[in-house]
Amino acid sequence: MSQQVMPARYRVISSHGETHDTVTLALQPVGQPIPAYQPGQFTMLYAFGIGEVPISISGSPAGRDLVQTIRSVGAVTRALCAAGPGQMIGVRGPYGTSWDVAEAAGQDVLLVAGGIGLAPLRPALLAMLEARPMYRRITVLIGARSPEELVFASELDGWRARDVRVHVTVDRATAGWPGHVGVVTQLIDRADIDPAATRALLCGPEVMIRLAARALCARGVGPERIRVSLERNMRCGIAECGHCQLGPLLLCRDGPVISYQRAAPLLAVQEL
Amino acid sequence: MTDVAPALLAKHAFLHGLPAPQVAALARATRQIWVPAGHRFFEEGGRAGQLWLITAGHVALDIQVPGRARLIVETIGEGDVMGLSWVSAPQEWQFGAEAIQPTTAFELDTAALTALCESDPVLGYQITRRLIAVAVRRLQATRIRLLDLYSAPSQNPVAP
């Protein structure tokens, strides 16, 4: 079923504006739902009559609704962001690899998110919170452009209350902002982690991922302990069209989540 | 200057690995401070004569923009160094600095620090190298922020 190419019909249950250009939709199936999904996987969302785009799932796999967070950057995403309760959307998937949070059991977990990169990491965090005693220290480091462009801002204190260390840094802020101002790699330098027993999950702009992964390696976290979520031009979602090729990988099938050990040499190739 | 235990001073990341006699010399030019949230360390245009090694807390470097709220340029915390404007002429603070949490730090008098570095070139070399490393890290971080990585993709007509 995960190879499906016909979209399932989903109805928008609610729409929540995260920032001026980013919306989180809660969806419920009308008829047959898509199969169960894992944190880190994505779907192809279809704005009927306009087009289809890959969007990361941002909700808990245990949740009743399919939750997806969309940034308005073009015609299709603009239409999806504008979708209100009751509107129908097509959904294919789930596709791709997962964060494999079970692998981090018994260890420290460090999540590093840049911008809307927090959306694909959120299901991993929610899954770990469902089984909080299985994990040691959980730290979430978030980089955003400004406090106003921080997604899931209303949830951060709730995560802190559940024994998660959450640190936010922004590129620009005015007086009164109580958090950090600077790049997310500076938070990595200061993070209280045990490098030999840390699993790191990274998602954000690719330049940020490279810099954050390097900063983690400099702290002594082995590249095999770092997983990154990469983005390319995903179209079919089933490794047929080749649009999302990254060297030997087709990211819709082999990604989006891969180990940094595997990603590092590919990210260094300019043509890729 | 009040007494600062060299062993305590040596624990700061900026001085990591510096020989004990040199740390002891620096300790004589250092005092330990605690300030509450809201304390202004310095203002843009003021004479720059201190170097702070932050041991706890959180400080915002800021700049006044006419007609707008102060903009925070960068924040600095535990293990960081604050105050580089004294290194070069005209020795004036280029930004302001305000504690946004209660903050503790070692405060070095830069006239005394400069005298120590001139009388002991090995120490001077070490301090210079470490200050350059701080400046390089800040320059690199600033360059990354200039990339505006989290902005929306450019107005590409074929963006999905």
Describe the structure.
Chain A is built from 7 helices and 16 strands. Chain A has helices at residues 75-82, 118-130, 156-161, 184-190, 206-218, 251-254, 260-267; strands at residues 8-17, 22-29, 42-47, 51-56, 66-71, 88-95, 108-114, 138-144, 164-170, 173-174, 180-181, 198-203, 226-229, 245-246, 249-250, 257-259. In chain A, the strands form 3 sheets. In chain A, strands 11-9-8-7-12-13-16 form a 7-stranded mixed sheet, sandwiched between helices. Chain A is globular. Chain A starts with 7 loop residues before the first strand and ends in a 5-residue tail after the last helix. The model of chain A has no long low-confidence stretch (mean pLDDT 93). Chain B has helices spanning 6-9, 20-27, 110-119, 121-146, and strands at 30-35, 40-42, 50-56, 58-63, 71-77, 81-82, 96-99, 103-109. Chain B has a single domain (6-146), classed as Jelly Rolls. By secondary structure, chain B is an alpha+beta fold. In chain B, helix 3 (110-119) crosses helix 4 (121-146). Chain B starts with 5 loop residues before the first helix and ends in a 14-residue tail after the last helix. At the A-B interface, helix 1, strand 10, strand 11, helix 4 and helix 5 of A face strand 4, strand 5 and helix 4 of B.
Task: Describe what is shown at a glance.
The complex is a heterodimer of chains A (272) and B (160). By secondary structure, chain A is an alpha/beta fold.
